[in-house]
Amino acid sequence: MSALTYAGRTFVFRVDNGVVFRNTYSPDGTGLRYETLEGPAKGAVESVALHAAEVAPGLFLIGWVEKSGMTVTHVMNLNTLTVHAFWTYENDGAGRAAELHTGTLEPV
Predict the structure, then answer these.
(1) Domain count for the chain
(2) Which of 54, 71, 83, 92 fits a 20 to 30 Å CA distance from 64?
(3) pTM
């Protein structure tokens, strides 16, 4: 696989907590536009800059920081169309909270 097999592609990402995103990657692989299709933030849309590396054939480590300060890291496996996701966010003044999730990808 090429170093940026996700670049220029769109996937529906279904997370184990019921949230669903449509993730569209820029043609050069350095940006992401995500849309929340299902879940508490349904309708939210944001474009972010990505930091990415292919760590094995078809396996990508991708991270970004959202306007809200939420940090997101995905281990995206394009061989199995699965994702392990880790994110952190401010927890109403009680420090940062962290969540680990899994999900599936559906090419669009």
Answers:
(1) 1
(2) 92
(3) 0.91
Inter-residue contact 72 to 64 (CB < 8 Å): yes
CA nearest 3: which of 45, 61, 84? 61
Identify the CA nearest to 72 among candidates 82, 80, 81, 84. 84
For position 51, which CATH number holds? 2.40.128.20
User: From CA 22, how far away is CA 96, in angstroms rounded?
Assistant: 26
User: Is 66 part of a structural domain of the chain?
Assistant: yes
Structure confidence at residue 4 (pLDDT): 64
pLDDT tens-place string over residues 10-53: 999 999 999 999 999 999 999 999 999 999 999 999 999 999 99
Among candidates 50, 108, 52, 107, which has minimal Cα distance to 78?
107
